[in-house]
Design a protein that fits this description.
mainly alpha
Length: 449
């Protein structure tokens, strides 16, 4: 074959690929279900894009103004207070959401549930505040920055006042999105007004807390006024009922928190605030990248749940397509972060965070790993009703993670924390994949019988 024929053959192949791609695109757009999914993904991206953009504006400003040490102090305080926030939340985000959803047409019952949950959360917040005070004033390293921790604790009150579980239960997610945008706006504008030098670091958690409390008050007013909720002092039995129904979710959340919120806290115990700042900057970028998966998962989950009722085989076929899509999308993101770690950190955090480059490279493949984990765990197993298997893995891995994180962080500091984080996400994803394969085999066996 001469060169001209080879060239024509290559052009023909490329034309065929182009034609196939156009045909595939048309096929997707003509499918109403796929069209709806794409529309939902784009809508969520546009709605949540504002919330994602705001931190990307304040993050570069804060890292440059405060520097690694002060930024690390804020990150440690936030991670520390997050434990008390988890105690106050106590799993109501799932249990109370379910109860509200079931009783959404009964105003009397809605008020009863609302009052019981808020009262339980107030009691838990008081206990949390006492626990915080005891720790802060008993340990010298905490007592030095006691104001920082108490300012950060305002977030717990803000989250208490923000009844996201109520709006989710009545399926009025628009309120949550708008209120989140309001919080982001208050925080962003206030940061540029009040934070101008490293000494102002103390006001960052205060600004965050005040914004959350203001939006929480607005959310409460909406619940009372627009949905006719009435607060009545609940009985002890009603509060106990709410706590009992949330107990297992709370225990599961505690285990999960070991590998989602403990990294910065454990690192802060064994390393300086500057080292915590280096790690936190890299982890922040990773979580922003992981956040891109949110709209995709939220849009796909209802669709997969609906087809699961009709045919689990159809779910498996669809999941295989999603694995390719999500895997490719997140792998590209991870490669970009690995290769461009220095450039990304210089743009987002500034040249003071050069020591974060190696951390970002270690963590760079977590978006890819978490992307696959979400497909196997959430979009397949939970959608098909295997949530108990998912939570069992999360609980066991979460508890075991501490036995890896503590020694790794003690000996290797931020490198050890990053490696531990990477390892635990790999273990979780492989565990979900193994269960996924077992479920597929179970479905094949049951279909042949």
């Amino acid at each position: 074959m001469n060169s001209k024929n080879i060239k024509n053959a290559i052009i023909s192949v490329n034309d065929d690929k182009g034609t196939n791609m156009i045909a595939l695109t048309k096929k997707i757009l003509q499918n109403e279900a796929y069209k709806r999914i794409i529309t939902n993904i784009l809508s969520l991206f546009s709605l949540k894009g504002f919330v994602y953009i705001m931190p990307l504006i304040t993050f570069p400003y804060l890292t440059r103004v405060l520097g690694p040490e002060k930024y690390g102090l804020i990150a440690f305080a936030t991670a520390f207070v997050a434990y008390f926030g988890m105690v106050t939340e106590f799993g109501f985000d799932l249990s109370a959401t379910r109860e509200i959803s079931i009783n959404r047409d009964n105003e009397v019952q809605l008020s009863k549930i609302f009052s019981s949950v808020i009262s339980a959360k107030i009691l838990l917040m008081i206990l949390s505040f006492l626990g915080l005070s005891l720790i802060v004033f008993s340990i010298d390293s905490f007592r030095t920055n006691w104001v920082l921790y108490f300012f950060a604790f305002g977030l717990v009150l803000g989250n208490l006042l923000m009844p996201s579980w109520f709006f989710l239960g009545i399926e009025k997610m628009r309120y949550i999105s708008l209120l989140n945008i309001g919080t982001s706006l208050i925080f962003t504008v206030s940061i540029f007004i009040f934070i101008h030098e490293p000494a102002d670091y103390i006001y960052v958690p205060l600004i965050n807390s005040v914004g959350a409390i203001i939006i929480g008050i607005v959310a409460m007013r909406i619940a009372f006024k627009d949905f006719n909720i009435k607060f009545n002092i609940p009985s002890k039995e009603d509060i106990k009922t709410q706590l009992k129904s949330s107990w297992h979710i709370f225990i599961s959340n505690v285990a999960i928190s070991f590998y989602t919120t403990s990294n910065v806290f454990v690192l802060g115990i064994f390393a300086s605030s500057t080292v915590v700042g280096y790690y936190s900057a890299a982890e922040k970028i990773i979580y922003v990248a992981i956040g891109l998966l949110g709209p995709i998962s939220q849009s796909l989950y209802p669709y997969i749940s609906s087809i699961a009722v009709k045919s689990k085989d159809d779910v498996n076929k669809f999941i295989k397509k999603i694995i390719v899509f999500v895997g490719s999308f997140t792998f590209i993101i991870s490669i970009i972060m690995f290769l461009g770690a220095g450039f990304i950190l210089n743009i987002l955090a500034g040249n003071q965070f050069e020591s974060s480059i190696v951390i970002l490279r270690i963590l760079s493949f977590i978006p890819f790993i978490v992307g696959l984990s979400n497909v196997f765990g959430v979009l397949f197993l939970i959608a098909l009703g295997y949530a108990n298997r998912v939570s069992r893995v999360q609980f066991i891995v979460g508890v075991c993670y501490l036995f890896l994180l503590v020694p790794m962080t003690y000996y290797l500091k931020d490198i050890g924390t990053a490696l531990s984080f990477l390892i635990v996400e790999c273990v979780i994803t492989l565990s979900f994949w193994r269960i996924y394969r077992n479920v597929i085999n179970e479905l094949k066996t049951s279909s042949t019988e």
